[in-house]
Write a sequence for this structure.
């Protein structure tokens, strides 16, 4: 490695935000043709480091080198001009524009008088889309795509320029397995062309599948760099969180109670049809399926956000109508939604207020909000979920993605619901917290809660569920118990093959 | 550690920036004209700001909930005309509740359109600005409305009375500010207003009844307008159909000066009060300096931009915006 | 075959003078079987008024009455009407001289004379009080840019030094034809000037606003209030002995005169080009000669 | 046709449906209520409508791009008045005395420059300070109006130049000068917004500012250009209008911003930015003008006009919402 020069080298980077030292002398380099993983717990500083590289944040100290040359990234434009492509953790798309315009955002091909060269644009885009093997075309409006497909549009941006370095910040957070395969092909192609790739992810299996080296950050500090081939999950985890992780599968089995929630022949227009299932108290039911399978829509219906066109919902045997989330909450249902920033949090509000929002009417001292009670609720769940924040006064918008997610989970746990629905609960969450959350879900069930877990990660559903509902295209294909389920049968069911019913 | 504490000083400054600006302002004008800070003048400014101020309190709720209210000016004309008309017809004791009821109906209508039907508040209240003006003209037949017996009515107490030497409009403004300030800062409802304005979708996902919250904000706004109309009517015991015309923008300017964000979710009653006072004292100060009225326009322009700019500059820790 | 007469008014919603004018105009036209009218309101916007002129021309009305939003800006539109063979009658406030060629007649008050008369009322009062050698006054003018406001201020400012050369006009600020605005302006004047002997307001609404301010400050007794366009509020304040004088001008007369002028023009009668109707002085002394204004 | 294209067309077309309604209503009501013998939908009357739409319409095109860009401009009414003053006053300046009627293009140019500069100043402030455009232009709406008054006190600024009036009143192929300007501006801004990189970037910025920044689009200059464009168009509107009328009151153009914004929103532009079209705006402008004209045609009095205009605005918004409802199973947020 001594004679090959790194494409990129960051040295001793320091970055502080008010009250937070997000990066504390971090060094990091990427070789040409290398896939270099950047790992660390939520809030460790991964995204911040990459934003410094991408010119979005200016570092308070340290230097960036490209090849031999020391560079200053004054802004995204400059970073891009230097061949650095950034695939963001949070979707960074203009929904009203077409796929083509989004992929070439900021560098639309021009003709005379500043006109857009539509023909070239479309041709180039189609070529890229073909490589990505997606079902939409250059003219599709991005807002009409599913989240996963929008992520594919982001990824397509990596292929537009002759990149020297590409940064993927949790690109797979909302992708399903099929799309991941495509993504990994893209990465392999880039790698062959000698591009240096930085890959941020919390998913160990991916890291071990595609990366060459792993750099670990903890609390903004550099922990070390490992050769992927010479290490293992346990070692990486240890470096990340400073302790070992208990990864035992689906630990406690306990007595199940009555049926807490039952759904019979539920349909909602064309979103999903004739869905039936039940959850007992004390049980965790996993919902697994491909993108667009309709799981989120079912959850939204159960939370009073959609009106079903047919079917019945029974809570503890009683037929109920849920007209609003307030209704659902009153009847003991909680939903941790899929889109944390859009649906889960008021970003400009502080941590405490976000967490107690659904119960603010009940936390009263006279006519006023009982702030002391709020703070103790916050403290309790901060400790329980290990939320990293300078204090309850911090604006949620300033927390790292994973810690934000924990605030949402804490918010709903503190409601002590009888039915808890979690939609992609660990999207963007580090391994340590992830296993905490899994344990939490199991222990909640053990305490008698009925839990529904929607997830696009097979290990996750397998790990936490007592039973698994496999969905395909708005229909329930099959329900597995944890004893009978195998990876193969599950994949078959969610692909519309070999289920009980025809699709 | 040093940087952190310096930042804290910075953010203290940012939080109190509007107060500091206010203080500088008052000192400047006082140096220019000694009468500026005389008790008489201060009372007179605060008293005439009270009407604008009371309306600004309500609009603060609307703005924090993420909406606008451009109808308050013409609604205030409506309340004033109605209460004056009813004063002679059914007596002040009934006229006042009747006027409140009618004004609240208008507020409820807007609240229904914006809250429940989710129509855009800028356009809805713009439409209502015009429609209520039409309504007022129809109601009054376009005539001035004057109380017949101006000397003999106790109705004048709201606009012209005083308790312990403090004019009632000032007392009403400040006590309403205190009350609404508590509601906004300390009650569950206030919390919901911030949540709905900060992220309406997330608020809904948290079980907050967004429509009802927005609706209530418009009711509060209309209630404030009714109080303003009451003070106005009582102050001159007679009125034209256009008393409130144009006030909507002044009110909005005051709320913005106070640091409320038009995106919703940000703002406080206390700062709105400061914003109101700043506007009132600018107008008055420039008049005392004998400058033509249009200087007031130019100065207000500069003050608004400077105040909001410094406010956000302090928050982001940089004077110039990072926009490339 | 009845006459079709179109009118475009300045800004009906702005005060009761204009509303009363509109109502009186409609009533007068309805009372006359030979007349049909199209009544339009420009809402104070020149562009809208010009569009309304065009609409009336396009509808081929027999005569157009215009209450100009801007005495110069409407001239080309007036020319268009006269080129289309439609006689134009200007009402309430005149258009500029350049446009006289295209106008059949002007009907309305003489605002400059009104301003002058207000100056005389004020001056006479000071002489009676014996303070005409030292009196200090302030002026509250109408809506900035409004012809009537400009002309009244001009008439007042020109006449005052002629009759009372030693009276000083300390400051002028606009009150926008608005009682509340005027009250605020007066409050500041009261703080700023310890000695105010008279206030001239561009109309009585503003005059009464100023009076209210002075009453609140306990200084009303020392001040002579003179206005213009005697509104009902002004008349009452005069009766109460708080307000000194004004100019009597009836919107009903104004409207009827305009309609009659148009009818006369259409009937081919000889009408004077400047068809002023008289607007006499009214003060506490002679007010019983006048009925209380209806607006 | 792509799926959904029809429903999309319907939604975008709400304003045109409303225009048709207005035409039908005023034609029928006019039969009973109007004393005019000429029909409302008379061809000449419609041409007149186009001309009368110009002052608001020309500015509305600029507002469309500014709003799509995610900003708003409340100061256009004042900019309109400033440009008018520059136009009319500069024709009387002694230095141009020798120019004869050539002073006209010079005055036009100066007025347009002034408008562009004031627009750009707004843009520059928004860009450099990061203060929201609504606030910046709410401020300059006052500030620029103050400048108007500084110029000539409370008096109107006037200069009637009959050559200019004749040009402005002229008709070419049956269309008045103002109509040509309106059509040309509409076409120009349409091309700008749909065909150029600047236009597409304006959409991107309005849609997702952060994404645009991350993609290296220089948000500031784009915004400033759009503010300069609306300043230019406010001035152009003034130049076209005051060439014909020759005198400006210091209060002229007041409330124009509100009418313009209303037209743009009725035309389907999203108030939060990112979506909207010039064609929709054109419809919005026509709809408003038609409403005013129609109410005059049927003899509605002032209080009714105010009431009806206000309620109709709300009704159109309501209609638009109903057309865009997603069906019962939609997410209720
Ligand atoms: N704009 C900001 N203002 C204040 N603090 C910030 C800001 N951006 C990040 N931080 C803080 O910096 C730290 C690092 O955040 P960063 O987003 O880099 O974490 P991360 O490693 O990407 O985490 P995750 O895996 O959850 O995405 C966190 O404590 C976060 O709260
Ligand atoms: N390829 C696609 N193109 C366009 N729209 C799609 C596509 N895939 C899904 N959608 C639509 O996007 C919406 C949301 O998709 P989403 O992925 O959230 O569905 P989901 O099954 O509930 O999600 P998940 O199961 O991943 O939680 C669905 O209504 C679906 O109809
Ligand atoms: O009082 C004024 C009246 O005299 C004038 O003619 O029109 C405007 C009015 O306010
Ligand atoms: Mg991150
Ligand atoms: Mg989903």
């Amino acid at each position: 490695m001594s004679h090959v020069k790194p494409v990129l080298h960051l040295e001793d980077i320091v970055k502080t935000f008010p009250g937070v030292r997000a990066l504390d002398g971090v060094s990091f380099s990427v070789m040409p043709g290398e896939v270099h993983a950047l790992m660390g717990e939520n809030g460790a500083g991964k995204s911040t480091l990459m934003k410094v590289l991408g010119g979005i944040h200016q570092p308070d100290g340290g230097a960036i080198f490209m090849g031999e040359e020391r560079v200053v990234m004054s802004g995204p434009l400059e970073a891009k001009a230097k061949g650095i492509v950034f695939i963001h953790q949070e979707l960074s798309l203009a929904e009203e524009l077409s796929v083509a315009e989004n992929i070439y955002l900021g560098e639309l091909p021009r003709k005379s008088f500043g006109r857009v060269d539509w023909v070239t644009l479309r041709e180039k885009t189609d070529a890229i889309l073909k490589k990505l093997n997606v079902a939409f075309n250059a003219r599709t409006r991005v807002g009409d795509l599913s989240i996963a497909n929008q992520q594919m549009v982001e990824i397509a941006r990596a292929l537009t320029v002759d990149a020297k370095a590409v940064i993927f910040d949790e690109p797979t957070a909302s992708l399903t397995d099929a799309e991941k395969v495509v993504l990994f092909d893209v990465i392999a192609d880039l790698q062959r062309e000698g591009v240096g790739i930085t890959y941020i992810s919390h998913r160990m299996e991916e890291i071990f599948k595609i990366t060459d080296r792993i750099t670990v950050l903890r609390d903004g500090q550099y922990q070390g760099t490992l050769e992927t081939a010479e290490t293992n999950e346990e070692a990486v985890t240890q470096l990340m969180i400073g302790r070992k992780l208990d990864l035992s599968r689906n630990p406690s089995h306990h007595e199940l109670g009555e049926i807490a929630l039952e759904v019979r022949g539920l349909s909602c227009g064309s979103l999903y049809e004739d869905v039936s299932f039940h959850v007992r108290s004390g049980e965790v039911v996993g919902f697994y399926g491909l993108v667009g399978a309709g799981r989120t829509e079912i959850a939204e219906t159960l939370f009073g956000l959609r009106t079903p066109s047919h079917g019945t919902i029974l809570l503890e045997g009683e037929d109920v109508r849920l007209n609003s989330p307030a209704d659902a909450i009153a009847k003991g249902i909680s939903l941790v939604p899929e889109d944390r920033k859009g649906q889960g949090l008021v970003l400009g509000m502080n941590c405490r207020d976000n967490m107690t929002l659904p119960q603010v009417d009940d936390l009263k001292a006279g006519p006023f909000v009982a702030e002391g009670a709020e703070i103790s609720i916050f403290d309790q769940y901060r400790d329980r979920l290990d939320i990293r924040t300078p204090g309850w006064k911090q604006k949620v918008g300033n927390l790292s993605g994973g810690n934000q997610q924990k605030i949402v989970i804490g918010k709903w746990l503190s409601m002590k619901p009888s039915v808890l629905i979690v939609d992609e609960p660990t999207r963007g969450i580090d391994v340590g917290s992830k296993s905490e959350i899994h344990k939490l879900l199991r222990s909640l069930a053990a305490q008698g809660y009925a839990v529904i877990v929607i997830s696009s990660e097979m290990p996750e559903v397998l790990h936490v569920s007592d039973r698994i509902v496999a969905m395909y295209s708005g229909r329930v294909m099959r329900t597995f118990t944890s004893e009978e389920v195998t990876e193969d049968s599950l994949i078959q069911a969610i692909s519309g093959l070999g289920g009980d019913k025809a699709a | 550690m040093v940087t952190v504490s310096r930042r804290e000083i910075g953010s203290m400054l940012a939080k109190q920036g509007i107060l500091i600006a206010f203080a500088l302002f008052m000192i400047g004008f006082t140096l220019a004209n000694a009468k500026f800070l005389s008790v008489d003048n201060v009372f007179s400014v605060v008293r005439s700001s009270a009407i604008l101020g009371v309306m600004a309190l309500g609009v603060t709720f609307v703005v924090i909930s993420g909406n606008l209210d451009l109808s308050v000016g013409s609604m205030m004309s409506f309340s004033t005309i109605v209460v004056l008309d009813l004063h002679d017809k059914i007596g002040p004791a009934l006229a006042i509740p009747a006027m409140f009821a009618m004004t609240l109906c208008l507020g409820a209508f807007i609240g229904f359109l914006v809250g429940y039907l989710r129509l855009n508040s800028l356009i809805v209240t713009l439409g209502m600005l015009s429609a209520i003006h039409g309504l007022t003209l129809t109601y009054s037949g376009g005539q001035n409305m004057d109380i017949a017996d101006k000397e003999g009515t106790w109705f004048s107490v709201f606009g012209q009375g005083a308790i312990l030497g403090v004019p009632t409009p000032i007392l009403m403004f400040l006590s309403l500010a205190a009350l609404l300030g508590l509601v906004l800062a300390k009650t569950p409802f206030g919390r919901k207003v911030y949540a709905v304005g900060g992220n309406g979708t997330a608020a809904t996902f948290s079980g907050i009844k967004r429509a009802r919250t927005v609706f209530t904000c418009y009711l509060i706004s209309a209630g404030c307008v009714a109080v303003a109309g009451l003070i106005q009517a009582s102050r001159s015991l007679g009125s034209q159909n256009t008393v409130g015309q144009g006030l909507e923008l002044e009110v909005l300017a005051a709320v913005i000066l106070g640091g409320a964000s038009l995106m919703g979710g940000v703002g406080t009653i206390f700062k709105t009060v400061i914003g109101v006072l700043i506007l009132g004292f600018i107008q008055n100060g420039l008049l005392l300096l004998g400058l033509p009225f249009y200087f007031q326009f130019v100065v207000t322009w500069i003050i608004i931009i400077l105040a909001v700019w410094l406010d956000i500059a302090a928050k982001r820790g940089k004077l110039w915006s990072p926009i490339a | 075959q009845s006459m079709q007469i179109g009118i475009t008014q300045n800004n009906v919603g702005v005060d009761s003078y204009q509303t009363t004018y509109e109502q009186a105009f409609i009533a007068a036209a309805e009372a006359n079987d030979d007349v049909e009218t199209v009544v339009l309101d420009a809402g104070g916007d020149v562009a809208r008024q010009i569009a309304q002129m065009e609409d009336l021309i396009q509808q081929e009305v027999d005569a157009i009455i215009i209450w100009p939003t801007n005495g110069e800006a409407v001239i080309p539109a007036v020319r268009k009407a006269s080129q289309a063979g439609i006689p134009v009658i200007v009402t309430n406030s005149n258009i500029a001289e350049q446009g006289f060629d295209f106008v059949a007649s002007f009907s309305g008050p003489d605002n400059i004379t009104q301003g002058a008369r207000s100056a005389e009322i004020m001056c006479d009062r000071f002489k009676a009080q014996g303070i005409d050698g030292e009196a200090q006054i302030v002026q509250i003018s109408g809506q900035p840019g409004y012809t009537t406001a400009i002309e009244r201020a001009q008439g007042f400012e020109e006449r005052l030094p002629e009759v009372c050369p030693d009276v000083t006009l300390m400051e002028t600020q606009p009150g926008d034809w608005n009682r509340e605005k005027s009250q605020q302006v007066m409050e500041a004047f009261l703080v700023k000037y310890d000695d105010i002997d008279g206030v001239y307001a561009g109309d009585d609404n503003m005059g009464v606003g100023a009076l209210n301010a002075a009453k609140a400050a306990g200084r009303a007794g020392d001040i002579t209030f003179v206005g213009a366009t005697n509104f009902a509020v002004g008349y009452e304040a005069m009766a109460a002995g708080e307000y000194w004088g004004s100019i009597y001008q009836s919107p009903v007369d104004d409207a009827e005169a305009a309609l009659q002028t148009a009818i006369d023009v259409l009937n081919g009668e000889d009408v004077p080009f400047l068809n002023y109707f008289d607007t006499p002085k009214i003060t506490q002394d002679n007010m019983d000669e006048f009925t209380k204004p209806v607006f | 046709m792509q799926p959904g294209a029809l429903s999309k067309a319907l939604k975008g077309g709400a304003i045109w449906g409303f225009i048709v309604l207005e035409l039908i209503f005023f034609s029928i009501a006019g039969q009973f209520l109007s004393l005019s013998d000429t029909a409302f939908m008379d061809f000449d009357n419609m041409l007149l409508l186009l001309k009368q739409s110009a002052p608001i319409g020309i500015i509305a095109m600029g507002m469309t791009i500014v709003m799509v860009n995610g900003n708003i401009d409340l100061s256009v009414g004042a900019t309109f008045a400033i440009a008018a003053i520059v136009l009319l006053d500069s024709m009387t300046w002694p230095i141009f005395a020798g120019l004869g009627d050539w002073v006209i293009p010079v005055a036009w140019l100066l007025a347009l420059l002034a408008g562009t500069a004031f627009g750009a100043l707004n843009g520059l402030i928004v860009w450099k300070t990061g203060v929201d455009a609504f606030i910046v232009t709410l401020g300059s709406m006052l500030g620029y109006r103050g400048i108007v008054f500084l110029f000539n006190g409370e008096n109107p600024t006037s200069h009637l130049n009959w050559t200019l009036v004749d040009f402005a009143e002229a008709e070419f192929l049956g269309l008045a000068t103002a109509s040509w300007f309106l059509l040309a501006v509409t076409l120009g801004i349409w091309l700008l917004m749909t065909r150029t990189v600047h236009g597409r970037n304006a959409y991107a910025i309005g849609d997702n500012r952060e994404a645009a920044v991350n993609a290296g689009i220089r948000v500031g200059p784009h915004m400033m250009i759009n503010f300069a464009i609306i300043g230019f168009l406010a001035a152009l509107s003034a130049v076209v209008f005051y060439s014909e009328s020759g005198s400006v009151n210091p209060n002229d153009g007041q409330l124009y911003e509100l009418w313009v914004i209303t037209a743009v929103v009725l035309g389907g532009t999203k108030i939060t930015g990112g979506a909207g079209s010039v064609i929709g705006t054109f419809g919005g402008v026509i709809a408003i003008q038609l409403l005013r004209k129609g109410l005059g045609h049927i003899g509605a009095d002032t209080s009714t006009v105010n009431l009806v205009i206000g309620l109709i605005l709300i009704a159109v918004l309501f209609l638009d919402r109903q057309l865009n409802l997603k069906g019962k199973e939609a997410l209720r947020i």
In short: The two ends of chain D are 31 Å apart (CA to CA). Chain D touches chain A through 28 residues (CB under 8 Å).
